[in-house]
Amino acid sequence: MQLPLLTEARASLTAQVSAINEFGEHTSASIPAERALTIYVDKKELVTLMTLGAWPEWLVLGYLRNQRLVDSVQEIESITVDWDVGVAAVKTRHGIAQYEEKTAKRVVTTGCGQGSMFGDLMASIESIHLPGTTLTQAQLYAIVSAIRLKESTYKSAGSVHGCALFAQDELLLFVEDVGRHNAIDTIAGWMWLQGSSQVQAEGKVFYTTGRLTSEMVIKSAQMGVAVVVSRSGITQMGHQLAQQLGLCTIGRATNKRFLCYSAPERLQMQPALAGNPQPP
Amino acid sequence: MQLPLLTEARASLTAQVSAINEFGEHTSASIPAERALTIYVDKKELVTLMTLGAWPEWLVLGYLRNQRLVDSVQEIESITVDWDVGVAAVKTRHGIAQYEEKTAKRVVTTGCGQGSMFGDLMASIESIHLPGTTLTQAQLYAIVSAIRLKESTYKSAGSVHGCALFAQDELLLFVEDVGRHNAIDTIAGWMWLQGSSQVQAEGKVFYTTGRLTSEMVIKSAQMGVAVVVSRSGITQMGHQLAQQLGLCTIGRATNKRFLCYSAPERLQMQPALAGNPQPP
Description:
The structure is a homodimer. By secondary structure, the first copy, chain A, is of the alpha/beta class. The first copy, chain A, contains eight helices and 17 strands. The first copy, chain A, has helices at residues 56-66, 99-102, 137-150, 153-157, 180-194, 198-201, 214-222, 236-245, and strands spanning 5-6, 14-21, 26-32, 35-41, 44-51, 76-82, 87-92, 107-108, 116-117, 135-136, 161-167, 170-177, 204-208, 227-230, 248-254, 257-262, 267-268. In chain A, the strands form five sheets. The first copy, chain A, has a six-stranded mixed beta sheet, sandwiched between helices. The first copy, chain A, has a five-stranded mixed beta sheet with strand order 1-6-7-4-5, covered by helices on one side. A two-stranded antiparallel ribbon of chain A has the order 2-3. In chain A, helix 1 crosses helix 5 (180-194) and helix 7 packs parallel to helix 8 (236-245). Chain A starts with a strand and ends in a 12-residue tail after the last strand. Chains A and B meet through strand 2, strand 3, strand 5, strand 8 and helix 8 of A and strand 2, strand 3, strand 5, strand 8 and helix 8 of B.
């Protein structure tokens, strides 16, 4: 497989600023970076993303994939990111078919949503068939623990979302961003580079600190990931779509607690691991 | 002033779903609604917003304002929302000038960002002059307390963002949505209906449960609100813009704690109210 050439543009993820606390004391605070990255595809301006900027090339790749602008990673010749000007230049091998058409329809998604989703993502749901991924309660607990240890920028600067990809309970990739849609797109881009056949999506579990909205569920399904874990809750449309897709959503996952909202057949319960139920 | 005619479309804000908890018990969970609202302006499709749907007419109004598609509330004749079909039909009095041009440029903002922002919002910063709003530490504490009492959908269903508008420490409007950009747009729409002169923005304080990103700072400034309070942190670009605008940003505001990141001259410190500093 001919992979695209990617730069490895790096930039500082946090900045120190001075602040005044409740005692009137001058103090120093670490805050996350937020920078504009304008994507050009074959010299045409596509979109500007506001991002922390940890892995901009994977972000751009995942963005193009999740927006369904490009069908195969091999269609992309190179992605060149230059933080000095805040530009990601994408060069395709043969141009993007129906570019105008694909970028015409706009959906502003919920909350920490992608923002604009091109094309009719919702209509594509019926063509998605998820792999037979299952997870044990012990593996779920291992995932929650792994995340607790991992959050780095969040710990130092706060205000970022974390997303992670697991193979069962093995952590493959952890990404933080000021927007969780960026974090999930970055993971999608990374997966795409590894080759994203159903075989490789089998056993994959996606973790997000953010809410399980319609968009998060759709993007996970597009990546072929059949189990999604969140420390937060789920929205009604996220729930409906997950049920439709047979995608297992697990929310409110902190310490030993969680709620499985959909496709519980994918979660092998081991209630003894939860300790004793609290008295009602 | 001739105000637009607005429907009062209401819909259920939460839904009950069944879930399985960590003990393998079947339980019931309350989750927030998330529904698609497609905005048509003079019969032309503009955008689809995913929203909780509490005050859809104000949301549409604020969206049009914050995207700078409409300059005056009087340009809008009516907004008709019909939840059965998920449509908001906007009728303008004389059409929107330079409609194509204004909807051409797209910025996907950070995190819980607006998603797509039309026009060059960033360029408009220099024309903004904020009123001389100040806030005392006692008023700040009153705001944090008021919010703690208020959060309703969040308490029952979680997974929503809350935003509120205060006149000093008097709560004027509290809005929850699955997307905080929707919550802030709803407040902008409400303010617009009240008349949004500088006089009326004087003394206004904006509260958000979400992060102080570039977008939140810009939108507050566009509303003429010079003090913004959050329980979360601030991003680097949010910080830069706030400094540039002289907009007071106060983050990490929980109980008695907070950090003032910018324009501290707007915050009248009363450190005695914070209690005793913790030992280092």
